[in-house]
Design a protein that fits this description.
mainly alpha, 77% helix, 431 residues, 23 helices
Length: 431
């Protein structure tokens, strides 16, 4: 590692340590590197603009953000929650199950763990606490754990970004995330069942079965979002970016036209908030692209790949080591940064070892999401603390069991690649 790269990395982490936003920290590290290396600092701006301009695929990111914000702003959450309560609320630990199922459904709209935790998550926490059957810490912990499913089931912004750096198909990545997302939901519901029996958590008052058809009809338009998206992608009708635009339009039609819950003023606020979120993500992506340029200039991917190949490491051992690394990094870094900066270092090695890039991408995204609830710096823990006021100590004391079962699910995905690859292969994936 050169002296200029070392100083650049020190500047990056130094700025991050004092609370500077990630994008600006990366930019400062890049400026230090270029300055010490005697290169024109303007290279940073030129590289950032050029790569963002060439990244047509990146247009899908703000469009998915818009669709998520539209869905969350309407009364859609109420309809979906009523549906979830009717389906699984009648079982012991019912609101815990509702929490998991609601996250599975909302993940098909938001694609964001933070959005799920701060939006629908806050509503369910309040419902669980007010019922008097659950402690605040438990309600917050299971909500944080279930929010990790958001970016796994399509649409998924992290998978779009991974497709950008790896060249893997977005459609295959989206399909590859469905069964892992369901698996994560299943293990969380299983753990909730075990704890509910141990602590004697009660069930909710059962909704009469005669009401289930009506509640299902009310929820169906929102439930169709992921299916419409996958149909557009796999039928070849649209590009990924056009599919994201259709998702945003569909969200607007059902929220404003069908449910009539969004007014012009609300829509303006949604667009402003979406623009802010998209700009924040765009800055991180742009800054990371400059850093990637520097990493390539330093020949780090090639050197890393050569050293691992020389060590005669097996694909399974490589996957386990990388997943441990990503899990640790996920405690302190955003998933976007991990995918844009760290993951490209290992893609050449994946190709050399014969590791499927769709399988690898889904593992990275799942792992990054688990990192969001890993103490002491799990971002989702702080988000829930901020929106509910529940002390971090109470949340952390309850989150360990859910963290354990999610890591177990991740291990199954590593050891059994078909969990990820079976569904894409059913639809013609050759990997």
């Amino acid at each position: 590692m050169s002296i200029e790269l070392t100083l650049g990395i020190m500047a990056l982490f130094g700025m991050a340590a004092i609370g500077t936003p990630v994008a600006f920290s990366i930019l400062m590290g890049v400026i230090v590197y270029l300055g010490v290396a005697g290169q024109d600092i303007a290279i940073a701006g030129e590289t950032m603009v050029q790569r963002l301009f060439d990244g047509f695929l990146l247009l899908a990111v703000p469009l998915f953000i818009v669709s998520a914000n539209i869905m969350n702003a309407g009364s859609i959450s109420d309809r979906l929650l009523n549906f979830c309560v009717a389906v699984v609320g009648r079982f012991r630990g019912g609101m815990g199950h509702v929490n998991v199922v609601a996250s599975l459904i909302f993940s098909g709209m938001s694609g964001s763990a933070v959005a799920d935790a701060a939006g629908i998550g806050k509503i369910i926490i309040d419902m669980m606490v007010k019922s008097g059957k659950y402690t605040r810490g438990y309600a917050a912990a299971i909500t944080a754990a279930t929010a990790t499913i958001g970016p796994i089931i399509p649409p998924s912004i992290p998978m779009v970004i991974y497709a950008l750096v790896s060249g893997a198909s977005i459609a295959d990545l989206f399909l590859g995330g469905i069964i892992p997302g369901l698996l994560m939901g299943l293990v969380l519901m299983g753990m909730n069942t075990i704890i509910s029996h141990r602590r004697n958590f009660g069930a909710e008052d059962p909704v009469p079965l005669r009401q289930l058809p009506r509640l299902t009809v009310q929820a169906t338009p929102a439930l169709l979002m992921p299916f419409i998206l996958l149909f557009c992608l796999y039928s070849g009708i649209t590009t990924p970016t056009e599919a994201a635009a259709i998702a945003a339009l569909y969200a607007l039609i059902i929220a404003a036209g069908l449910y009539r819950t969004i007014r012009i003023k609300t829509l303006y606020e949604i667009f402003v908030e979406s623009a802010r979120s998209a700009a924040s993500v765009g800055l991180v992506i742009g800054a990371s692209m400059i850093l990637t340029y520097i990493v390539i200039q330093e020949n780090i991917p090639q050197a890393l790949s050569a050293s691992l190949e020389g060590a005669d490491i097996s694909p399974l051992v490589f996957l386990i080591l990388i997943n441990i690394l990503v899990l640790l990094l996920g405690c302190i870094l955003d998933a976007t940064v991990i995918i844009l900066v760290i993951v490209p270092l290992f893609i050449p090695t994946c190709e050399a070892l014969g590791i499927d890039l769709v399988h690898f991408g889904v593992l990275v995204v799942v792992n990054s999401m688990i990192g969001l609830i890993t103490p002491p710096y799990g971002i989702l823990l702080f988000v829930i603390n901020a929106v509910t006021g529940i002390p971090l100590k109470e949340i952390i004391s309850e989150v360990w069991v859910f963290l354990g079962v999610l890591i177990f699910a991740l291990l199954l995905m590593i050891l059994v690649p078909e969990i990820v690859l079976w569904l894409p292969r059913v639809f013609g994936y050759q990997g």
